[in-house]
Amino acid sequence: MRASFMNETPSPANRLNFAPWQFGLLLAALILAAFPQVVFGLETFVARDYGFFVYPLAHFQKECVWQGELPFWNPYNNCGVPFLAQWNTMPLYPPSLLYLAFPLNWSLSFFSLLHLWFAGMGMFFLARRWTGNSFAAAFAGVAFGFNGFTINLLMWPSHIATFSWLPWVVLAVECAWREGGKKIPLAAFVGTMQMLAGGPETIFLTWLLLAGLWLQQFVLGESPRAAMLWRFPLVVVLVFSLSAAQLLPFLDLVSHAQRETGYTDLRWSMPGFGLANFLVPMAFGSTITEGIFFQHGQAWTSSYYLGLGTLWLALVAIFGVCDRRVKMLAAVTVIALLCALGENTPFYPLVRKIIPQLSFITYPVKFVMLVVFAGPLLAAFALANLEASRKKLLPVGATLLVLIGAIIVWTQAAPLAGDETHAALLNGLSRVLFLLVTGAVLFALMRSLKSSLHRYLPLLLILAGWLDVFTHEPKQNPTLPPGIFDLNLVRNQLAMNPQPDLGGSRAMLSAKAALELTQFAVHDPKDNFLAKRVGLCANVNLLDAIPKVDGFFSLTPREFDLLLSTIYSAGNGKWTQLENFMGVSQTTSATNILNWEQRAGFQPLITIGQQPVFLDATNTIWTLGRNDFDATTTVFLPPESKSFITASNQPAAKILDAKFGINTVDFKTESPGPAVAAIAQSYYHNWAAEVDGQPVPLVCANAAFQTVQVPGGSHQVHLFYHDRAFEIGAAISLCMWVNCFVSYVALRRRELPASPVQPDEDDYF
Q: Cis omega (within 30 of 0) on the bond before 753?
């Protein structure tokens, strides 16, 4: 039976009921209508991080899996960087099997669209449970799947996956603390799936929202308080345990990475004028970047436009529906908007001082995701109570119409530098049209006409909302033919000599090129991508298997990040010997950032026989940039290693048969006496070393790299990535998955009725 708190609310808008399968088909049809070329594999997403971060990493992950190994380490970027522990690379997220199994240039984009559909379905079930109205739930589901913010997330498969689980987690966890039983392991499974998808900010805000919802229901006493006190914490513990294989390596990386409390600033806050974009989405911005509209001063999301129908109904609910969930959602919306405005109000800076951990959230505009979550639900409450809130409908609609007019006047009379005023004018006028159409449908819904066509007005309202969002801006996610991601496209075109390859040598962008390529933006997405691909921007080098010195990751080992930041901030010219040590054979041309030039004097990635000099990290970095530093004769080691490093310079020592793998390095040494072998791979504590099968210390060399001492004579050296945190986490996760599955099956059997009864659809949630 349905839970007692879900009331069936009669409404004139409830003339068209949606079964889950009907809504699923409708949502799939809308996605197909919006992205037919992607669904059928004719084109693929490419813009922004999708092309330079997501796709290359998915390709690397797929290559590793098909070679039969987990991608713990990425040796192609940052002279080596942890991969599995990054979390947002989704190495342990089960649905990732979709793009690992099928051609990547189709499956990765389809993966994002599949989660767009899944997001809408989750919102449908949540809204239907909270409002008891299937049409209101269908409207909310489409609004949650089709708004500017969610569509923007398609460029980040990890973000759209995490965000798509948000309504499912809220639905499942609330059922768990209210009803207990099999709903507890079910909620744990659902929460774990979101956790493994790897969007930390979305996950944090999901559970913050759940904590507020739990507290409200606990205070109101809607469920037995004693049960609520242990059920919710139990779900949290289970989710952490089930996802420990991913979380423990991530937390380990955080403790050894460059980010610390206070690491992030308030860049990319929602600008003060950004509130206007809820009404006129192309106000105060431009389309200079790949033809995608962005506000001035904020470039994380290309839009957070909810659609005028959703906004109108959400405001009607706030002012016209008396329900404790509405009050909760209204409070969430206001607080989220204040946080999203970041530095433009005193609220969020004050909150960050009180809760310093919030500084781990990059870009305050991300808080708008809670507005995007709350808006469709509020709209659903308004639709489910349309008769009760009809008095608020006209005043709110008239206010929105006046505000749109005022924004249009503002954009034309006082444009900001770089504004596209004509586009803003047309955009505003078209929003007026959608507002009028939406109003006409809403007022028609409240009339008691018995026409058969009148029965389909709810569907017309949904389609009007979808079309409003579909047309609110130019394409947020431009697409191109899949050939844009062909492998070795740049390697074959540039014909570098020598060719950088794994274990051989590396490419290195100059400081100027790294900065200019990051800022580079042209209107045509194809030209934009190909230019940056030739320049090896971000992680696109993975498509050509070209190792390079820099990369684009949320977390990097602290030692290497400090060294690379120092190199790039100091500019080129003084790091010649260090570049030789890092094996840099190709560097950006001094006259053209898209050309590459050969470097002479680069060393092999493994060298031996240098004189150890014991020096702390700060002085080591300073010395590495001096003209008298010689990487062929000197290696700097931390002072604490002096007690067990006994080698001296051995100019006759040799490295033989060096071989670099994804998670391993192997080589042979020949030396007349004890010597240190320096490996130009970034130092990270999970790397271990063996000499002739016996463990030996692996030491940080030259501030950020690796070295190992070998005895005199001939010896075999084996370096390998050993993630103890992953092993412990995997053991915990495996045990908990088995326990939770067994518990779910046992509880489900115990709760089955004695005689066969046709279950209500909501019994599954």
A: no
CA 415 – CA 28 distance, rounded (Å): 39
In angstroms, the first-to-last Cα distance of the chain is 11
CB 708 within 8 Å of CB 213: no
Tokens of 406: 């005022």
In the structure encoding, which two tokens stand for residue 415, read together? 């444009």
- φ/ψ region of 745 (left if φ > 0, alpha if ψ in -120 to 50, else beta) reads alpha
- Specify whether the CB–CB gap between 170 and 141 falls below 8 A: no
Three-class SS of residue 295?
strand
Report residue 668: phi and psi, to 5°: -110, 150
pLDDT tens digits along 191-240: 999 999 988 899 999 999 999 999 999 999 888 999 999 999 999 999 99
Domain ranges of the chain: 45-164+258-470, 169-257, 486-558+582-598, 606-724
Cβ pair 508, 548 in contact under 8 A: yes
Residue labelled with tokens 């099997």 = 97
Establish how many alpha carbons lie within 13 A of residue 445's alpha carbon, considering only the half-sphere containing its beta carbon.
30
Q: φ and ψ at 261, to 5 degrees?
A: -55, 130
Q: Which amino acid is at 181?
A: G
Phi, psi for 585 (deg, rounded to 5): -100, -20
Cα-Cα-Cα-Cα dihedral sign, residues 427, 431, 433, 437: positive
Please state whether beta strands 634-637 and 611-614 pair in parallel, antiparallel, or not at all (unpaired): parallel
Number of H helices, E strands in the chain: 28, 20
User: Please, are residues 210 and 374 in contact by the beta-carbon 8 Å criterion?
Assistant: no
Give the integer Cα–Cα distance in Å for 413 and 420: 13
In this structure, are residues 546 and 60 in contact, taking their beta carbons and an 8 Å threshold?
no
Tokens of 154: 């398609």
- The C-alpha atoms of residue 139 and residue 317 are separated, in whole angstroms, by 14
- Separation of alpha carbons 427 and 102, rounded Å: 39
What's the rounded Cα separation, in Å, for the pair 132 and 762?
10
Task: Report d(CA 462, CA 293) in Å as an integer.
Answer: 25
The C-alpha atoms of residue 374 and residue 716 are separated, in whole angstroms, by 60
Cβ pair 256, 262 in contact under 8 A: no
Other Cβ atoms within 10 Å of 137 Cβ, number: 27
Give the residue carrying structure tokens 């100027």. 512
Using alpha carbons only, give the angle 338, 339, 345 rounded to the nearest 5 degrees: 60
* HEC readout, 159-207: HHHHHHCHHHHHHHHHHHHHHCCCHHHHHHHHHHHHHHHCCHHHHHHHH
294-318 pLDDT, tens digit per residue, is 999 898 999 999 999 999 999 999 9
Q: What is the pLDDT of residue 17?
A: 82
> Where are the extended beta strands (E) located within 589-711?
596-598, 606-608, 611-614, 634-637, 654-660, 664-671, 675-679, 687-691, 694-696, 699-701, 705-710
Size of the chain in residues: 765
DSSP state of 654: E
Q: Residues 253-284: pLDDT tens digits? A: 999 998 764 455 678 899 999 999 999 999 99
Sheet-wide strand order for 675-679:
606-608, 675-679, 705-710, 699-701
Helix 617-624 vs helix 558-570: crossing angle, to nearest 10: 40
pLDDT tens across 538-577, in order? Answer: 999 999 999 999 999 989 999 999 999 999 887 656 788 9
Q: Any idea what DSSP says for residue 83?
A: S
For the chain, what is the mean pLDDT? 91
Radius of gyration, CA atoms only, the chain = 29
Helical residues (DSSP H) of 364-481, grouped into ranges: 368-384, 390-413, 421-445, 457-470
Among residues 724, 758, 675, 638, the alpha carbon closest in space to that of 249 is found at: 724
